[in-house]
Every structure is written in C-alpha cells, then in structure tokens.
Write a structure and sequence with these properties.
The chain has 271 residues and is mainly beta. It has one domain: Methylamine Dehydrogenase, Chain H. The chain contains 2 helices and 23 strands. The strands form 6 sheets. A 4-stranded antiparallel beta sheet has the order 1-2-3-4, with no helix packed on it. Strands 5-6-7-8 form a 4-stranded antiparallel beta sheet, with no helix packed on it. The longest helix is centred in the C-terminal third of the chain and has 17 residues. It starts with a strand and ends with a helix.
C-alpha cells in the first residue's frame, strides 16, 4: 500500500499500491467493497467531495476516474510525461486537478472529463495541488522550490511563494483560506493568501519535510519529516475572529501586568 484516502462521509477507505491495485474497503469493518486497477504504480488517490467518484494518479502520467459505487471506469485523463505526484478534487465543484512531471497542472471537469484549465508556471515537477475550501483558489508546489497560487475560474496566476530555495513537497490552505502552509527542505512556511507574503518559517526538523497541514480549526500546524518525527506548532494568528479577540485580550493583560499600578488602572478605566 503506497497511498490512501478516506471518503468524505467516512464510510470508505481507498488504498493503492505500487502494482496498480486499488481497493475500496468499508471503514467500519475493513471488509473489501470493490477492487479497481491502475496499470501503473499508484502515486495519489482521492475521493470527490460528494464521494461518488474516486480517482488515482499514476507513475506513468495519467489519472483514472471511477464511479465509487459501481467500479465503472469513467475517464482516463492524460497529465503528460512523468509521475502524477498529487491529485485533488475541488470541495465545491466537479473539478479535478493533477500535477505532472513537466511542471504543468491540469484541471478537468471530473464528471465529463472535459479539460478546464492548464496551468504552466513551474519549472520542474509538481509535488502537490490543493484547493481552498471554497474551491476558488488552487495552490501548487514543485521541485523548483516555489509554491504558487491560482484563480481556478480564470486560470490566472496570482502569487509565487518563494523562500525555501529548494524542493517544496506540499502546500495547503488553512480552513478559512487566509493562510497557506508549505513544506520545504527543513522548514515549513506560513504565507498570507491575499498577498503571497511570507509570514514566518517554522524550524526544528533536521531533514526534509514530507508534508505540512493545518488542524481543522486552523490554530495548529502539523509537519512531518524524513527525520522520523512529526511536530505541532501553535499558530496564534491563524484562528478565527473569536480566537484572535481572545488572543488580543490575553496579550493586553500581559502587557498591563508589567505597568505600574496607576498606569494599569488608567488603561482599564471605563472597560
């Protein structure tokens, strides 16, 4: 087993291996539900947002899409030369994105197989593709050392996230879409989605990172590395408005504690 994915409703688990075998199993019992086959090694696997489709990217530059319920092959999509390192379905539309070994990202209508966008700005192989939660944006990462953001509807390139200076292995949005986290050689990067500006780098791993992602509430960042460790970082600025208000109040009281009593009473007068 080389790749695994869970359906959005949590009922099915899809797993693929280096021989091209794909198994759909029931999550509650582990019982085999259906077997599929990809002619080449499976490099990425994903379910559509409604769970009706399952897709797999291969070592040979193609993506196959099946009906998850019947196992019928719906489409075979060509990505181009090289490995399809990552595929992703949009959370809000019937769109499927895949990154190829030639640095190109392609987006299709997953229901019809019709091409929608062809995104070409990276100089080397794509390592990750990820949609924002509203489906409006796409972030891509590459062996060229950059991550990039795109407008899905128009295919317009928006920002380059540059600062790792070597292969970037993953990139994903925060749940609210305001931030992006990337996994670089030995650091994870936090970036502002709106501007593409680097906020800070998260250090601690000794060897290249394999992935970086946000917790469901967006207040934690999880990283994994070839050094055999995973790390969790608190991201104080990444939470929603309630989290930010609580953080501001906490810092206000911390600052006030260092003031002389008279200045502290004046600061909180009328509050």
């Amino acid at each position: 087993m080389t790749r695994i994915a869970i359906s959005p409703d949590g009922r099915l688990v899809a797993s693929g291996d280096a021989g091209g075998a794909i198994e759909l199993s029931r999550a509650d019992s582990g019982a085999l539900f259906r077997q599929l086959h990809e002619p080449a090694a499976v490099r990425s696997i994903a379910f559509s947002a409604d769970g009706k489709l399952v897709a797999a990217g291969s070592l040979r530059g193609s993506v196959r899409v099946w009906n998850a319920a019947t196992g019928a092959l719906a489409h075979t999509l060509s990505v181009g030369p090289g490995t399809v390192a990552k595929i992703a379905f949009s959370p809000r539309a019937p769109l499927l994105a895949a990154g190829g070994g030639d640095g190109t990202v392609r987006i299709w209508n997953a229901r019809t197989g019709a091409p929608v966008q062809r995104l070409k700005r990276h100089a080397e192989a794509i390592t990750d593709v990820s949609f924002s939660r509203d489906g409006g944006l796409l972030v891509t990462s590459s062996l060229d050392g950059d991550a990039r953001t795109w407008d899905v509807a128009t295919g317009r390139f928006l920002h380059v996230l540059r600062g790792h200076f070597s292969a970037v292995h993953s990139a994903s949005f925060s749940p609210d879409g305001r931030w992006i986290v990337t996994a670089g050689p030995t650091t994870a990067g936090l970036w502002a989605t709106s501007s593409g500006e680097k906020v800070f780098l998260l250090r601690g791993h000794r060897t290249p990172l394999t992935s970086a992602s946000f917790s469901p509430d967006g207040t934690r960042i999880l990283t994994a590395s070839l050094d055999g460790t995973a790390r969790i970082y608190a991201c104080d600025i990444c939470g929603g408005i309630r989290h930010l208000l609580a953080l501001a109040e906490k810092r206000l009281h911390q600052a006030a504690a260092a003031l002389p009593p008279d200045a502290r009473r004046q600061l909180f007068a009328g509050s």
